[in-house]
Amino acid sequence: MRLAPLFALPLLVMSASPVLAKGCIRGAAAGGVGGHFVGKGHAVIGAAAGCVIAHHHYAKQARAQKAAARAHN
């Protein structure tokens, strides 16, 4: 039951913007592997954190590209 929010957050992030879901999946994979090597039970937490961090990174990058496109027009 404690892990329910960890699973719900990545699903919520992915459903909010399907274009940026690729970043979430990449981050979840990297975070899961990193968490696995840290210790028992940390893979799920690493995957959730990786998803959130990668989604934030790709969203920020998309906003910067939109701003650059507006500046050139």
Could you explain the architecture of this structure?
The protein has helices at about 5-15, 20-40, 40-70. It is an all-alpha fold. The model has no long low-confidence stretch (mean pLDDT about 80). It has one domain. It is built from three helices and no strands. About 85% of the residues lie in helices and about 0% in strands.
So what's the overall shape? elongated
Structural classification: mainly alpha
Average pLDDT level? 79
Report low-confidence residues grouped into runs of 5 or more.
Answer: none
Query: How many domains make up the coordinates?
Result: 1
What would you report as the Rg, rounded to the nearest angstrom? 14 Å
Give the end-to-end Cα distance, rounded to a whole number of Å: 51 Å
User: What proportion of the residues is helical, as a percent range?
Assistant: over 70%
Strand content is: under 5%
Total count of strands: 0
Q: What string, H for helix and E for strand, traces the elements in order?
A: HHH
Number of helical regions? 3
- Biggest sheet character: none
Please outline the helices and strands.
Blueprint: H1 4-16, H2 21-38, H3 42-72
Helix pairs in contact: 1-3, 2-3
Notable traits:
single chain, 73 residues
Short account of what is shown:
Helix content is 85%, strand content 0%. The protein has 73 residues and is mostly helical. It has one domain.
